[in-house]
């Protein structure tokens, strides 16, 4: 094994200790504009075949979180007329915990050279990098989707176009709990060697 420079050990430790903090356990303070832009500066350093920058960000904070919750509650009633009040209220409160939510939106429109799948994966990498950046700056974060990320009526309210996809809602705030570790897969059990036929 090669000897790692000191900073590499620190970076690997940061990767190895990343944990999601449940959005319900995220509170004030959230990142201000400068802190969020610093996180996004790190998050955009992802592999990007063709240099397309096939993603954009939508910040949802303050009263906008509650307005989005109201939209979800109304849409849930439309989708599931028999939904219980508790289900409706769960959707209404979905965005009310973390002070800042960043929607990561992928551009999947026509491109002669770069497949939509590669652009989607690029945007997915942005989500993960944003989680890492938030933790590095002392915040808790969680990457969520849920039905709202795939509902065209909700997406239209968020300004997500027909040739775009909402890859994730990244909830960011001060962790109210220390996120517990969970069992992780053993990479040795997932690794095989390809041998030519």
Structural notes for this entry:
It is globular and about 55 Å long. It has 197 residues and is α+β, with helices and mostly antiparallel strands. It has helices spanning 6-16, 33-43, 63-79, 85-93, 116-136, 152-157, 187-190; strands at residues 26-27, 55-61, 100-107, 140-144, 164-175. Strands 1, 2, 3, 4 and 5 form a 5-stranded antiparallel beta sheet that branches. It has 7 helices and 5 strands. The protein has one domain: NADH Oxidase, CATH 3.40.109. The model has no long low-confidence stretch (mean pLDDT 94).
Give the helix/strand layout:
Layout lengths: L5 H11 L9 E2 L5 H11 L11 E7 L1 H17 L5 H9 L6 E8 L8 H21 L3 E5 L7 H6 L6 E12 L11 H4 L7
Antiparallel strand pairs: 1-5, 2-3, 3-5, 4-5
Helix pairs in contact: 2-5, 3-4
What is the overall number of helices? 7
From the N-terminal CA to the C-terminal CA, the straight-line distance is: 30 Å
Question: Approximately how much helix is present in the residues?
Answer: 40-55%
CATH architecture: 3-Layer(aba) Sandwich
Q: Kindly estimate the percentage of residues that lie in beta strands according to DSSP.
A: 15-25%
The CATH class name reads Alpha Beta
Radius of gyration from the alpha-carbon trace, in angstroms:
19 Å
Major sheet: 5 strands, antiparallel
Number of strands: 5
Briefly note the CATH topology name: NADH Oxidase
Low-confidence segments: none
What is the helix/strand order?
A: HEHEHHEHEHEH
Whole-number average pLDDT?
94
Estimate the global geometry from the Cα principal axes: globular
The named CATH superfamily: NADH Oxidase
Structural class of the secondary elements? alpha+beta
Number of domains: 1
């Amino acid at each position: 094994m090669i000897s790692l420079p000191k900073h590499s050990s620190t970076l690997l430790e940061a990767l190895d200790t990343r944990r999601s903090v449940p959005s319900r356990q995220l509170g004030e303070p959230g990142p201000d504009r400068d802190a969020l832009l610093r996180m996004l500066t790190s998050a955009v350093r992802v592999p990007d075949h063709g240099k397309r920058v096939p993603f954009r960000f939508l910040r949802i904070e303050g009263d906008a979180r509650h307005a989005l919750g109201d939209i979800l509650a109304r849409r849930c009633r439309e989708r599931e007329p028999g939904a219980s009040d508790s289900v409706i209220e769960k959707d209404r409160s979905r965005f009310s915990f973390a002070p800042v939510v960043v929607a990561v939106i992928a551009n999947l429109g026509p491109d002669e050279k770069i497949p939509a799948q590669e652009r989607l994966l690029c945007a997915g990498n942005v989500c993960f990098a944003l989680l890492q950046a938030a933790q590095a700056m002392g915040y808790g974060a969680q990457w969520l989707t849920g039905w709202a990320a795939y509902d065209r009526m909700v997406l239209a309210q968020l300004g997500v176009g027909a040739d775009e996809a909402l890859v994730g809602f990244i909830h960011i705030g001060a962790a109210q709990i220390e996120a517990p570790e969970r069992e992780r897969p053993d990479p040795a059990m997932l690794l095989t060697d390809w041998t030519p036929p």
